[in-house]
Amino acid sequence: MTKAIEGIIPVMITPFTEDGAIDYAGLEKLISWYLALDVDALFAVCQSSEMQYLSLKERGELGRFVVRQVGGRVPVISSGHISDDIDEQVTELTVAAETGADAVVLVTNHLDPAKQGMAAFRRTTDTLLDRLPQDMPLGLYECPAPFRRLLSDDELKYCIDSGRFVVLKDVSCDLPTVERRVALANGSPMAIVNANAAIARDAMRAGSLGFTGVFTNFHPDLYKWMRLSGDLHEDLAKRLNTFLVLAALSEAFGYPVLAKLYHQRLGTLGSIKSRVIEFDVREKFWALDAILDQIVAGTEAFRAEIAHLGAGAAAAA
Question: Which residue from 131, 81, 83, 84 is spatially nearest to 107, judged by alpha carbons?
């Protein structure tokens, strides 16, 4: 791995055809969309990718396709870690490593599936570190499914001290916890990257090295501007932050299908088919299209305002 895993890191959705197969033509368009918005890395085969509903073969093929399509333009990290059995974990993480990903991401709840505490966490982690390729950089992900297993400070420090881990997708959703973890990781290869939109700006200002929440599937460029330029334009950054926080609340209205509806509007995807959500999201969540209308309008308004800033600076120069 030659590039740091940090910045704005979309958690990739998986397009499906109407008959339920992975839509690789749609995935190619989706990857182009991410890259056109100047993302810093991609997280493939994650919960947003519906990894729990993909076969091992599909997880491997999906990861390989993303790596091949990206072609080194940004780092790709990949997971597919869905099993509790240790031998199955080794198998599926080895498959992830063989995709050519820049880092393989371990899901914390599978490191202690019976919720037994640090001793069990260390046993599983040690076994995986011993049996996975020694030169493969690793990540950690506090995935909410099947349950959110937050790392203790001691567990995080244990992983940092191993020298094998380069990124944590932080799902604590708690700014003091992010700040404490940033301090623990200081001086190490480990990047702490927050995934919660409500604290995204404050977390980045506190040392989170980017953002990797679900609304990177809607406007990753706005998060990137806030990270890199927000402190230079405080009024705009405050208004943008409020919009991003409120927009992200709509995750509860049928995500990842919500994101697929958005990309269907853009022409990125042809179908909103999902394996994790089989109900009609429009029937369950009334006025969902009106909510999307507002997200689209707000996104484009802020993009235009940011572009105007850039045009003004160029003219002044």
Answer: 81
What is the distance between the alpha carbons of residues 77 and 288, in angstroms, rounded to a whole number? 32
Measuring CA to CA, how many Å separate 17 from each of 157, 268, 271?
43, 13, 6
Residue found by looking up tokens 């197969």 in the block:
21
pTM beyond 0.90, yes or no: yes
Distance (Å, whole) CA 152 – CA 138: 18
Distance CA 5, CA 116 (A): 30
Q: What is the pLDDT of residue 1?
A: 47
Residues in the chain, pLDDT under 50: 1, 317
Whether residue 172 contacts residue 178, with contact meaning beta carbons closer than 8 Å, is answered with: yes
Task: Give the pLDDT of residue 312.
Answer: 60
Place of tokens 């980017």: 210
Alpha-helical runs (H) found in 163-287 = 175-185, 200-205, 220-229, 234-248, 257-266, 281-284
What superfamily does domain 7-218 belong to in CATH? Aldolase class I (3.20.20.70)
Residues 6+ apart with CB under 8 A from 25: none
Q: Residue ranges of the domains in the chain? A: 7-218
Give the contacts of 40 (CB within 8 A, at least 6 positions apart): 6, 7, 8, 9, 74, 75, 210, 224
Q: Indicate the residue type of 26.
A: G
